[in-house]
Write a structure and sequence with these properties.
Number of strands: 0
Order of helices and strands: HHHHHHHH
Length: about 250
């Protein structure tokens, strides 16, 4: 069983990570590159200059890759070229894909139910709702330069939201009875009733239209990633099945 989980996650995560890296090049990555032009800039003048320069064409870039930082400048290190940025983004996507695929395949095994490509998509949609959609209600994806609350507070709330949403969905899907249904709904609502940490001031140099475009592109890209990874994991889970376990 462990080998089945491992090899399913490895193949599904690798293919899913590589595939979503291509999607990112046409969705979120262009938006991030555009947003970086406003990071640390002075506001309206920089906004107008960038709109003239880019023709207001928001072609989506995805994962933040800022311009290269020089050593000793006090700025965090960043990839120094487009190729280097793409390679690091692809590596991160593949590792993330394998990690999420491991979670999916472990859930396949724990559920004890037959899983194929089609049911894998449903598991992937659940993963999207848990890890991307629900947290985005309180902490939407942010472009470079956007104002945000303390990182530790945001991380704690994100983990709470993911755990509560996962627990709530499990109660609603795998348990019977009105009590479980009501408890699941309450668990999903709890993080949002508490409220996500918010910055002291709202705003930043990035135009709100660009930030909104990034949120939409990020969520759509995440949905594609989770559905593809779920389908791949379900397909290979079925293919790597041991006939003796039937």
């Amino acid at each position: 069983m462990f080998r089945r989980i491992f090899f399913t996650a490895l193949v599904a995560g690798l293919l899913g990570g590589l595939g979503i890296s291509v999607v990112h090049e046409f969705t979120t990555t262009p938006i991030i590159l555009h947003a970086e032009e406003f990071e640390g800039s002075g506001g309206d003048d920089a906004h107008k200059h960038s709109l003239r320069k880019n023709g207001i064409s928001l072609i989506p870039p995805a994962h933040a890759h800022g311009p290269a930082k020089t050593a000793g400048s006090g700025e965090p290190w960043g990839p120094g070229s487009a190729l280097e940025r793409t390679l690091f983004t692809t590596l991160a996507n593949v590792l993330t894909g394998i990690g999420f695929a491991l979670i999916l395949t472990a859930c396949f095994a724990l559920s004890g139910r037959p899983v194929n490509g089609q049911t894998g998509v449903l598991w992937g949609l659940a993963g999207f709702g848990i890890a991307s959609l629900a947290p985005a209600l309180g902490l939407p994806p942010e472009v470079p330069g956007a104002m945000a609350a303390d990182l530790a507070s945001r991380q704690m709330w994100w983990f709470l939201c993911v755990a509560a949403t996962a627990g709530g969905l499990w109660a609603m899907v795998f348990r019977n009875g009105a009590v479980w249904m009501v408890g699941g709904i309450a668990a999903i609502a709890l993080p949002h009733l508490i409220g996500a940490p918010q910055p002291a001031n709202i705003g930043g140099n990035v135009p709100p239209e660009l930030a909104a475009h990034f949120v939409a592109a990020s969520l759509v890209t995440a949905a594609i990633f989770w559905c593809a990874t779920g389908w791949l994991a379900g397909t290979f889970w079925e293919r790597f099945s041991d006939p003796s376990e039937a």
